[in-house]
Amino acid sequence: MTGLLNLTGGELMFVVSAVFIAGVVRGFSGFALSALVMASTVWIIPPIALIPICWFLEMAASLLMVRGGFREADNSIVIGLVIGSIIGTPLGLALTTALPVETSKLIALVIILILALTQLLNLRLPFLATRPGLYGSGLLAGIVTGLASVGGMVVALYVLARQAPARVMRASLVMFLFLTSLTSFIYLWLYGMMTPETIWRGLLLSVPALAGVVAGKALFRPVFEQYYRPFCLSLLVFLAGLGLVRTAF
Asked: For residue 45, which of 22, 3, 19, 11 has the smallest C-alpha distance?
């Protein structure tokens, strides 16, 4: 397996562990798989190779979780977010090819950190409740997906800002990530990022990711729903802050 993935034994163990933990968080929160994988393994695998790998991980997780998403998601906002994201993703990928990798990632992380902190501080963002806010959030999610594969974090902020029940928020995130995964594959293929090596890496690493998702889903119980929103917002701040520290040093 180390030969197929082009990693040393130690690197493989670390990456598999990181992917499993990211899967656990995805199973509970409905997002953050790609963000965690990016933050923890980017020093082993460069971002331009991680983005298509994360596509496989997200698709595998979405297929496992999408059934509940169909039943409980707020599809009126999911559709608006998906439309915005479809437009924004090629813009983000174009920026990725034009800007230095660290610069593009820095832009995405700063945006996410600012938005997450406003939610933790209970600062209201009335714009998000409007129709332009819906499509604008989807557009921004698509752009940062192309920049650093963290569009789910922007959508998480939008969904959390609506103060919906935890199950609806989580299901809406699952549906968004599933639907946008279908379209983003085309963009990744057109940009030449789906190489044989990244495909093998994505397929093989989907196994520990799925194991983590199963464990994370088991943690999402009614007794924990009151902690869902603060957990997700704190996770967003932590991930964005961690990424900024890594970029700085």
From this structure: 11
pLDDT of residue 213: 94
For the chain, what's the residue count? 249
Cβ density class 104-113: b for 16+ within 10 Å, e for less = bbbbbbebbb
Distance CA 233, CA 220 (A): 16
Contacts of 195 (CB under 8 A, 6+ apart): 52
Nearest 5°: phi and psi at 130? -95, 165
Q: Which residues contact 124 (CB under 8 A, 6 or more apart)?
A: none
**Three-state SS sequence of 180-237:** HHHHHHHHHHHCCCCCHHHHHHHHHHHHHHHHHHHHHHHHCCHHHHHHHHHHHHHHHH
Task: Show the tokens assigned to 58.
Answer: 């997200």
The token duo for 101 is 């990798």
* 54 closest CA partner among 64, 42, 65: 42
The low-confidence residues of the chain, meaning pLDDT below 50, are none
Query: What separation in angstroms does the CA of 59 have from each of 19, 38, 124, 209, 241?
Result: 14, 16, 33, 10, 26
Q: Token digits for 174? A: 């699952």
